[in-house]
Automatic annotation (TrEMBL):
Residues 72-321 form the AB hydrolase-1 domain. Residues 1-18 form the signal peptide. This is Pimeloyl-ACP methyl ester carboxylesterase. Keywords: Signal. GO terms for biological process: acylglycerol catabolic process. PANTHER family: HYDROLASE, PUTATIVE (AFU_ORTHOLOGUE AFUA_2G14860)-RELATED, MONOACYLGLYCEROL LIPASE. GO terms for molecular function: monoacylglycerol lipase activity. InterPro entries: AB_hydrolase_1, AB_hydrolase_fold, AB_hydrolase_sf, Epox_hydrolase-like. One of its GO terms (cellular component) is membrane.
Amino acid sequence: MKRTLVLLCVLFSTILFAQTDSTSVTVKSLDAKLTGYEYPYPVLYLILKEQKGVYNMAYMDVKPKNYNGRNVLLFHGKNFNGAYWKSTIDTLTAQGYRVIAPDQIGFGKSDKPENFQYSFAQLAQNTRALLMTLEIEKTAVLGHSMGGMLATRFALMYPEVTDRLVLENPIGLEDYQAKIPYLNVDWWYQNELNKDYAIIKKYQKDNYYGGVWKADYDPYVNILAGWAQGKDKELIAWNNALTYDMILTQPVVHEFKDLKCPVLLIIGTRDRTAIGKALVKKEVKESMGQYNKLGRETRTKIPNSKLVEIENVGHIPHLEAFKKFMDPLLNFLAK
């Protein structure tokens, strides 16, 4: 009974915030495939036949003018898509790298299935199929946020393909299901349906950016808010619920010791992102998402790993502190 009351209070406070926020921001409604939303490079599609369905997986394949023979695969986070890698892609291709930036099934411009069993293994397998189509046999892999969990699974499944691994403020450095109560997909679905611009911005401002907001961050709220009020909002909410369940029930933290390739951890130490921490008692909540500690703990778990900490930077170093992110990345890739 107490747990039910806590969850209801959390949900009520979320709704109350949305009703009392006085923001006058105008948000453009978006459909499930982000029609009309321009990516920085041409978007191509890979047709995947799996789980009794046929799905389109969007991706950007950006080739440099002077190819150095090396590739970089980018995995986006849960609340993002391939477009937010623009500056990273620009810099990497200028250095001669070919860059592949897919939108995973359920994200960005890719299809959002009604009936799909999401797993990091399935998404990794889809990405391997993309690389095979592009005739790429070996690549460096960079994953941010949820993409860090997927990048880890990819590296574990395909060590012969993964030349090196970079984890940028990955979620899943702790086992969330060991700390928060289990909530089924239906609960997460209803929670997603109640989100709007104010709720989404507050979450990102508090967790990603330490309470400081810049206009540069607006697009990453506007996309999610556009979906939340668009004609496909129920489909988007359902896919979000399914991927929350994937994150919570498929941890990779216990397998870091099995990684074989060189690994670079780039950690903004101000980050406090943790799935479900609003659902637990204060003392548990305060122990979650402590990236100033999690980065160092993770380095000890991963063989042949290096940690670069970026002080006073939050969840998305490649947006908030690009040079401090890119310099160690380029040094690591060049070795």
